[in-house]
Design goal:
With 199 residues, the protein is an alpha+beta fold. 36% of the residues lie in helices and 37% in strands. The chain contains 4 helices and 7 strands; from the N terminus they run βαββααββββα. It has helices at residues 17-24, 67-79, 84-91, 157-198; strands spanning 3-13, 36-46, 53-62, 96-106, 111-118, 125-135, 141-151. The protein has a 7-stranded antiparallel sheet with strand order 1-7-6-5-4-3-2. α1 (17-24) packs across α4 (157-198). The N and C termini lie far apart (62 Å). The relative contact order is 0.22.
């Protein structure tokens, strides 16, 4: 059985598309997004016919588990059903989390699309996010973000509901931090550079 929640956001970035796409690659590491601790590029290619750039990466994150999962983990271990290490392996009891990200940049149509999905705990829950950057005007870029969160724990509906609520809250917090971090990146790259060239 599946439960899902869909989040949607749309905003205008006060920079031209080219600036936004350039800044996109410099978003991490970032003190405002300190939960992202590593970025590994798995593949990068350019389609010779279309010029579309495709990049696949894995982001390593530190995310604390919700308190109720830690509490349930302790109770299960105390009951003797599982050892601590077995339960941690089964439910991904580590703070380390990994996300697969695929980025397509089409310079001809000025479209950049980022899709990401969690690799950690994927047997229980999936968070699929899609971000798109397209020109709005000559000097602004349209940012569109959707996220679908699905919990798959048919035997434990209340646990699935709680996990989903926690993930939605975490997603919203991280999305807000990501926007602030990206604003800082764009300011550093372009606004400060422009101010220096004027002086």
């Amino acid at each position: 059985m599946y439960w899902s929640q869909l989040k949607w956001s749309r905003d205008c970035v006060s920079h031209p598309w080219f600036h936004v796409v350039t800044g996109m690659w410099k978003k991490y590491p970032n003190p405002k997004c300190s939960h992202v601790i590593s970025i590994d590029v798995l593949d990068r290619s350019v389609d010779p016919n279309t010029g579309i750039i495709r990049t696949e990466r894995v982001l390593g994150c530190k995310q604390k588990a919700p308190g109720w999962i830690v509490k349930v983990s302790r109770q299960v271990v105390r009951s003797g059903l599982y050892t601590c290490s077995t339960f941690s392996q089964l439910f991904g009891g580590s703070e380390d989390a990994f996300v697969r990200e695929i980025i397509y940049v089409d310079p001809a149509t000025q479209n950049a699309t980022i899709t990401s999905v969690n690799l950690s705990l994927s047997q229980f829950v999936t968070c699929f996010e899609r971000i798109q950057y397209t020109p709005s005007t000559r000097d602004t870029t349209l940012f569109t973000q959707t996220a679908e969160i699905q919990a798959r724990m048919a035997l434990w509906r209340s646990a699935a509901d709680n996990l989903e609520k926690w993930l939605v809250q975490r997603f919203e917090q991280n999305a807000q931090l990501g926007k602030l971090a990206f604003t800082d990146v764009l300011r550093t790259l372009w606004e400060e550079k422009h101010a220096q060239s004027v002086v």
